[in-house]
TrEMBL record:
Residues 6-205 form the Acyltransferase domain. GO terms for molecular function: acyltransferase activity. Keywords: Acyltransferase, Membrane, Transferase, Transmembrane, Transmembrane helix. The keyword Cell membrane does not apply. The keyword DNA repair does not apply. This is Acyltransferase. Its main location: membrane. InterPro entries: Acyl_transf_3_dom, Acyltransferase_3. Pfam families: Acyl_transf_3. Belongs to the acyltransferase 3 family. It is found in: Membrane.
Length: 215
């Protein structure tokens, strides 16, 4: 019988409330002093990183029961992650696209430019397909708050291989890989201008997954 870790659910709940509060705050006018102050605390981003850590813990606990990753195990893992992450992402993206196209755009002057910019190009089918295929472009045009699902699904694809590699080779290899990732994170504005490497720009967030490994 699987044992549910309820304290992880509690942490998810707290992080979710902080993210909702942060995005609500982001919809308020930019000139409000308390909005600027709270925004500079980076509570929303820290909460998203907490989500990544919790995902890493949960996936690590699942994989820790597997002695050797077989092809069948990996396919079963991918199917579960697909239904857990991509299907909700797809449904929300389609709903956002439809809502923006059936309701007329009207700027709300009492809210922020960020809030009013969302959905202004929703009639563009290219933007819709860019979101559906999770290429990372124009995510802010339909539903900017679901960008983290793109990161989570991408890292989920390679997570089992990295997990077993780190478990086999120990903490030194993990630290070397993390240092390499953060090096490219710091230098990508100079090195990664091409759109084809857009995935690499979001990969540093994925490194947070592996901080919980028991090495």
């Amino acid at each position: 019988m699987k044992k549910r870790l309820y304290f992880l659910d509690s942490l998810r709940g707290v992080a979710a409330l902080i993210v909702v509060f942060t995005h609500f705050l982001g919809s308020l006018p930019e000139q409000l002093s308390y909005r600027v102050f709270i925004h500079n605390l980076y509570l929303g981003r820290c909460s998203v990183l907490l989500f990544f850590i919790l995902s890493g813990i949960v996936l690590s606990l699942v994989l820790d029961r597997v002695q050797k990753l077989s092809a069948a195990d990996y396919v079963d893992y991918l199917i579960k992650r697909y239904f857990r992450i991509y299907l909700p992402f797809f449904v929300v993206t389609i709903l956002a696209f439809l809502l923006f196209n059936v309701t007329p755009y009207q700027r709300i002057h009492s809210l922020s430019d960020w809030f009013n910019s969302v959905g202004t190009q929703a009639t563009n089918l290219t933007i819709l397909f860019q979101n559906i295929f999770m290429n990372g472009e124009s995510i802010d045009q339909l539903d900017p708050v679901i960008w983290s699902l793109i990161v989570e699904l991408r890292i989920s694809i390679i997570f089992p291989f990295l997990y077993f590699f780190f478990r086999k080779n120990g903490v030194r290899s993990c630290l070397i890989c993390l240092a390499t990732v953060y090096f490219f994170w710091l230098t990508y504005p100079l090195c990664f201008r091409a759109k084809i490497l857009n995935w690499a720009k979001r990969f540093p967030y994925s490194a947070i997954y592996f901080r919980n490994l028991n090495l």
